[in-house]
Amino acid sequence: MTSKFKKSCLWGAASGTALICALAASGSAHASGFQLREVSGSLQGSSFAGMSTQTDDASQIFFNPGSVGQLRESTYSVGTSLVMPNVKLKSGSFTSSTLTNAAGSVSNATYGDMGQDALVPNAHAVWTLTDQLNLGISLTTPWGLVTDYESDFAGRFFGTTSAIKTANVKPVLAYRFDNGLSVGGGAQIQYMDARLAKAVGFGAGEGNGDVTGDDLAAGWTAGMNWELPTGTRIGASYVSEITHNLKGDITFDSAAQAGGYRNQTAEAKVTTPEYITFGIAQDIGEKWTIMADGQWTNWESIGTLNFRYGGDTNVNFAGNQNSTADVYNWSSSWFYSLGAKYRYDENWTFRGGVAYDQTPISDEYRSVRIPDSNRYWLSLGASYKVADWADVSLGYTHIFAHNSTVNHTETNVGTFRGEYESEVDIIALQAKFQF
Question: pTM to 2 decimals?
């Protein structure tokens, strides 16, 4: 390969990275809690077993900055995942003693699919600075959510549209010691844009309210990856929480304004959770690798979401109407994965894996916005080397979810009860370039 052609390929990879970064702000999807793991086409095929230990390509550095030091050549990965959730309300009911006409107008007690398909892009790069020092960067959307109901949904007074979109830039440095240990750390710079909409009532009438906000904030990450002479790899990493002070507006349609609702500025604080990832991998002969990982996510940061407004949001209601609170009270949760990698020949590598994904949401606090439940993953994947400097990876996951129940009561609104069932299909495609 000529130097000119290499530079052209490098320019193409850099341009692709810039494009993915721009697209990242618009990509989001429904996931357990609202965490998105879809950052690697190769790891997708093993249900993310190996996320703390493997270094096949640059995409695998996202979960563990310590892995950056184990790559021996400059490497670039770009990819996207198509996430296709299917979330159905099997039965639902709404009762209210205050919203009399609104309760009587409920017609959509079942709902075909309130989850929204989404493309989740990602881009990663590692540059070798010296024989032992590497620089890495990941551009991802680690948190995201889109759920959307029609205007006649039975639970519309508790939520209609919910959208959380993020774009995360994670630059890290890693140093590899002579004994095979690599340690790394760095920053994460994260943009968040959020929107929550629901119906609002006023006696015999109803309208719609919509609160939006965005913010740019930062956190940090650190990790280690240790390659032992026995073919064993051990990995562990930490990613900090990031607190976003979202600022925006709450707006109401004309029907709501006729009932006394007024547009105001709005603020809210949202903290994305910290998480710890750890794992072990073992080579078996020259062809097989067995991988096991665990991840603890501290969702307790999602407690009560307090909204503060620039003034009263309804001039007809008694008392102060300049703040509201949504209670979530999520708990910490675990993700466990077990997978295998088989190197068939110099060109083909195959992967498979299973995982258990625990929901952070208890039955008491489950809401129409995220009717989440425990999940089981089943994944398959393959990588093909198309040239000495490039390969392509494809991963597929089907997620089986427990049925879930929402039983939500709010003073001055009423009670919604619903039964949900869900499943998710994910297809991830990735290209790797190495120079």
Answer: 0.91
